[in-house]
């Protein structure tokens, strides 16, 4: 009786091992990579997510923790206006102070547990330089802290415009000498990739890709990015009470979870990224313009910067030409006239005479054509007076 049970148990173990191998073989960097046990995971959260750090630390695949830092513009320095406006202003300052205190506390705890730390800024409409300063002043990043710019969409009425995002990135580089990671959804990332000749910085930032599908191989903008730095694969959008791609102990059931295309050791070595993709290190985002000696001695000098970018690639030039081809082509076209009179001879002289007269009867047109001067086809003061 023991022999059949023993064989059944061995068969079950073999079947389970085979299924695990099949699952691992199907998984790739673009298809359910979180199913590979060697792929590192990162949690990102905001101030309203509760975290049990003791429980979270039991998941050894969690390598990093990225927390929301600033949101748009900083609160006003002075509370002015009527009673309601002052109350609102004070409430914003209170929230700002409490959120920052929570942020710094989480940073200390996460690092004490051996986790890599990161911060992201939620980009809103408004002055991008002021937002970048708000972000850095809020996060107080260490050299090993990841920084990320969160662009939720490509609607400048709701989110920071992509042009302003470029300036945000420049300001971060001016202050700390490195670049943030770009967080973006699939649609916005594809738009940036398709217009990389316009967004020379955004298109070269390491990509933190947000898409809640099991496979992204046909959606990922491979023409610009060859891979992602992080892929946010699990969030409230696809994680519920009964089903979720991945659950992290000690966190809400719909916490945002991200996967890296590498193992833990490689991700730790790459963290906090901070460089540009496929751009020589000699090219900076901007350089300060020279200040005269007299102005420098006088003090109160505002430093201004000139943008510097790598020379356009062949692909950039093809994309730019393709986008502007219609306008370029139309500039060489003759006007298309669909209602010109039909005459045996209808050259430029007759065309000008026809445009100058408001009469449209055949006899009047014949008279206008007969009186047309071949040497005078340009507009004159008399012509403008007759119109």
From TrEMBL:
Molecular-function GO term, any one: lysozyme activity
Key word Signal present: yes
Domain of life: Bacteria
Signal peptide span: 1-27
Record-linked InterPro entries: GH (IPR017853), Glyco_hydro_25 (IPR002053)
Matches recorded under Pfam families: Glyco_hydro_25 (PF01183)
Transmembrane segments: none
Family: Belongs to the glycosyl hydrolase 25 family.
Full protein name: GH25 family lysozyme M1 (1,4-beta-N-acetylmuramidase)
